Amino acid sequence: MAIDRILSRSNRGKEKEKICDAGWECSGSKYCCNETISKFFQVYQFEQLFPKRNDDLLAHAQHFWDYHSFITASSLFQPLGFGTTGAEKMQMKEVAAFLGHVGAKTTCGDMEVDGGPWAWGLCYNHEMNPCQRYCADDFKYPCVDGVEYYGRGAIPVYWNYNYGRIGDAFKVDLLHHPEYLERNATLAFMAAMWQ
Question: Please, which residues bridge with residue 29 across strands?
Answer without folding.
Answer: 20
